[in-house]
């Protein structure tokens, strides 16, 4: 695992188990774990992870913003999707090798009425719509995810 990814995973862990009121406190915890980073790097990590500062009855605290985290995941999934094809009864999504099951899981978690379910192989996801007229809506949802990677094409 890349050091940035490890560090960001550790930041998420610390924020979930500790009450962190300022970046300096978090830098202390990270230093104890062997991560020597600057405050500027930590600020960039916060932006990438969607960390926000909130006010609680116990004072200020940094937390992971679920909405921002969701956007991060959508960007990653958007990168993993290569193309999407459809016929009159199903939608096929081509992904990077080994990523179809993760993409299928992500799509399943939408809990959209239009989608009965998905099947993820190695590099292909089969999306089964609830009815033929739902296919354009499903394609639209996939397009939104793919918009983060402009080199991709809808077919």
General description of the model:
The protein is of the alpha+beta class. It has two domains: 66 residues, Arc Repressor Mutant, subunit A; 70 residues, 2-Layer Sandwich (Gyrase A, domain 2). It is built from six helices and seven strands; from the N terminus they run H-H-H-E-E-H-E-E-H-E-E-H-E. The strands form two sheets. The chain has a five-stranded mixed sheet with strand order 5-6-4-3-7. Strand 1 and strand 2 form a beta hairpin. Helix 4 packs across helix 6.
Overall SS class: alpha+beta
* Basic shape: elongated
Major sheet attributes: 5 strands, mixed
In whole angstroms, how far apart are the ends?
Answer: 34 Å
List keywords for this structure.
elongated, Arc Repressor Mutant, subunit A, 6 helices, alpha+beta, 155 residues
Summarize the structure.
The chain is α+β, with helices and mostly antiparallel strands. It contains six helices and seven strands; from the N terminus they run H-H-H-E-E-H-E-E-H-E-E-H-E.
SSE order and pairing:
Elements: H1 3-17, H2 23-32, H3 39-49, E1 51-56, E2 59-64, H4 66-80, E3 81-86, E4 91-95, H5 100-108, E5 115-120, E6 124-129, H6 135-146, E7 153-154
Parallel strand pairs: 3-7
Antiparallel strand pairs: 1-2, 3-4, 4-6, 5-6
Helix pairs in contact: 4-6
């Amino acid at each position: 695992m890349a050091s940035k990814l490890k560090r960001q995973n550790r930041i998420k862990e610390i924020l979930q188990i500790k009450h962190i009121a300022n970046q300096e406190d978090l830098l202390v915890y990270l230093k104890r774990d062997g991560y020597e980073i600057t405050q500027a790097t930590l600020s960039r990590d916060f932006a990438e992870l969607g960390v926000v500062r909130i006010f609680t009855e116990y004072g200020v605290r940094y937390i992971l913003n679920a909405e921002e985290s969701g956007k991060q995941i959508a960007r990653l999934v958007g990168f993993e999707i290569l193309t999407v094809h459809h016929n009159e009864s199903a939608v096929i999504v081509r992904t990077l090798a080994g990523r179809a099951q993760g993409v299928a899981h992500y799509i399943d978690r939408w809990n959209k009425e239009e989608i009965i379910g998905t099947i993820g192989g190695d590099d292909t996801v089969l999306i089964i719509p609830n009815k033929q007229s739902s296919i354009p809506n499903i394609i639209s949802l996939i397009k939104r995810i793919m918009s983060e990677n402009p080199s991709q094409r809808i077919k």
